[in-house]
Write a structure and sequence with these properties.
By secondary structure, the chain is mainly alpha-helical. It has 10 helices and 3 strands; from the N terminus they run βββαααααααααα. The chain has helices at about 30-35, 45-70, 75-85, 90-100, 110-120, 125-135, 140-150, 155-160, 175-185, 190-205, and strands at about 5-10, 15-20, 25-30. It has a 3-stranded antiparallel sheet. Helix 2 crosses helix 4, helix 5 runs parallel beside helix 7 (about 140-150) and helix 8 (about 155-160) crosses helix 10 (about 190-205). The longest helix has 24 residues, at about 45-70.
């Protein structure tokens, strides 16, 4: 079999289509084709074409994974789920995961710590809810539990409420408690924690001259 032509894809200029004996055989990254010295007139067999296809899929999977990690760390389960959306073969996904682990790009313990710190700094919520989120992302129970140890739910609830206090100025006590209480409930905090935090927030609003 002979590669009769190599054509760049019109919408994906970094990929090319290979035609063997006048028929489309496969698509691959332009860089891979250049690296492997693929050219028109080159003689190939089925095994060589399959090797090119597999190498292209491996590289595409790894590049997709690195792209995902450029936004934020991921758990192993998240990464597997996202790679499946690209219709990547299970074996190639396994190879990619192992490669990412070896490079320390995938580490569920480090991911869990990142998730905790992100929640603490940006979107405070209860230790119970953070643990539940970690479990849903595939972090094992022991790691999820140890990650949330030491979290202070009352302080987290207060930080979450403080970010919304201005929006509730002027509300009556009942309206304030219903709205802010509902918000904190959705963040996973217990009734007792919410009660104490709402009392603290109402005192602060009253100190600013707002009606009780």
């Amino acid at each position: 079999m002979v590669i009769t032509s190599i054509e760049r894809q019109p919408r994906r200029r970094r990929r090319v289509n290979l035609f063997v004996d006048g028929r489309f055989a496969l698509s691959m990254a332009l860089g891979l084709a250049q690296e492997k010295g693929v050219h028109a007139g080159m003689t190939v067999d089925e095994a060589e074409l399959e090797a090119l296809r597999l190498e292209d899929e491996r590289r595409a999977a790894y590049e997709a994974a690195i792209h995902l990690l450029s936004y934020r760390p991921r758990s192993e389960r998240e990464m597997r789920q996202r790679l499946r959306r690209h219709n990547i073969a299970a074996g190639v996904i396994d190879e990619t995961i192992e490669r990412l682990r070896a490079s320390h790009y995938l580490d569920d313990a480090a991911f869990a710590q990142f998730w905790r710190e992100s929640r603490e700094n940006i979107s405070p919520r209860s230790a119970r809810l953070i643990r539940s989120e970690l479990l849903s992302k595939g972090v094992d129970s022991g790691t999820a539990t140890s990650t949330v140890e030491g979290l202070d739910d009352e302080e987290a609830a207060y930080r979450a409420a403080s970010k919304r206090l201005k929006a509730h100025q002027g509300e009556s006590g009942d309206v304030f408690r219903r709205r802010m209480g509902g918000f904190l409930t959705r963040r996973g905090f217990s009734y007792d924690v919410i009660r104490r935090v709402l009392d603290r927030c109402r005192r602060e609003l009253a100190g600013d001259g707002s009606p009780r």
